[in-house]
């Protein structure tokens, strides 16, 4: 199981060019891929996305590809056609806004697309494969980091699940006292209300037992232990996913809330609150798992 948070980079020299690729990923419900580059790579976008999908299943993926020319002939090529367009745009802005200032060189420096590298993959077929291989290396580095981070998250989650298991054991031990305590409490209250009036004690105790059974939490404890077993199994499974863990955690929380609403025992109520605190921490971690 992997985290959705990761970072990877790779660099490769390619016949007068240098390709640098950075990949950053964060948690997301789906696999969202965003590709940016200092040059047009529209013809490679489908291949780049395919390589991302080969390694990553979920998360927001930001991938930046920087290509620079190297050597004596290095340097980005000025796009003369784009320069003419910018001049016309600036002159139009001056006219509409009533600006008298002359267009100067520094005004053009903010237009990064003036200096973008234009690559003809027909003339440089080796660049296509080189770029894709560099992308693959960066993604693999990012994926390795996601794997390490995921292992750390799982280890912490396992420890928290064991803590919850200990709290459930305390609740199970006190569960019978929850019923008997409620029974005795109701019996005393009724005798106080009757104020010495004679009643059928056998019938009274029978009715009180039926009422007291409504606070019996033994079934909830059994289901809670079952869900914890499923949670441990899901974390150990090779095909585990954050979505499955989140679903099981919801079921654990549901049983915990039921126990908390049925009990009148302060110790059980306190343990239920502690369980919910641990569940919230595990849920936050599970949301960052792929």
TrEMBL record:
Transmembrane segments: none
Molecular function GO terms recorded: hydrolase activity; RNA endonuclease activity
Keyword Nuclease: yes
Cofactor dependence: a divalent metal cation
Record keywords, A-Z: Endonuclease, Hydrolase, Nuclease
Domain of life: Bacteria
PANTHER family in the cross-refs: UPF0701 PROTEIN YICC (PTHR30636:SF3)
Protein name, as recorded: YicC family protein
Organism encoding this protein: Caldithrix abyssi
């Amino acid at each position: 199981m992997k985290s959705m948070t990761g970072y990877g980079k790779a660099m490769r020299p390619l016949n007068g060019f240098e390709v640098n690729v950075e990949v950053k990923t964060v948690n997301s419900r789906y696999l969202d891929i965003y590709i940016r580059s200092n040059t047009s790579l529209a013809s490679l976008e489908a291949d780049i996305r395919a390589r991302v999908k080969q390694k990553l299943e979920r998360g927001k993926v930001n991938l930046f590809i920087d290509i620079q020319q190297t050597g004596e002939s290095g340097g980005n090529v000025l796009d003369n056609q784009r320069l003419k367009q910018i001049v016309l745009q600036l002159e139009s802005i001056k006219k509409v806004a009533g600006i008298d200032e002359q267009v100067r060189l520094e005004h053009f420096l903010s237009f990064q697309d003036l200096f973008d590298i234009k690559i003809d993959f027909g003339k440089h077929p080796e660049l296509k494969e080189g770029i894709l291989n560099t992308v693959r290396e960066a993604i693999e580095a990012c994926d390795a980091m996601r794997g390490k981070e995921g292992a750390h998250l799982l280890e912490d989650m396992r420890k928290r699940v064991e803590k919850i298991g200990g709290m459930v054991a305390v609740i199970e031990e006190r569960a019978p006292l929850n019923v008997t305590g409620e029974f005795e409490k109701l019996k005393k209250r009724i005798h106080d209300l009757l104020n010495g009036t004679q009643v059928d004690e056998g019938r009274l105790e029978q009715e009180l037992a039926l009422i007291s059974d409504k606070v019996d939490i033994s079934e909830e404890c059994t289901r809670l232990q079952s869900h914890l077993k499923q949670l441990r199994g899901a974390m150990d499974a090779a095909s585990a996913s954050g979505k499955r863990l989140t679903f099981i955690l919801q079921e654990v929380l549901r049983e915990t809330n039921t126990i908390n609403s049925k009990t009148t025992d302060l110790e059980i109520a306190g343990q239920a609150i502690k369980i919910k605190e641990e569940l919230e921490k595990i849920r936050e971690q599970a949301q960052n798992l792929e």
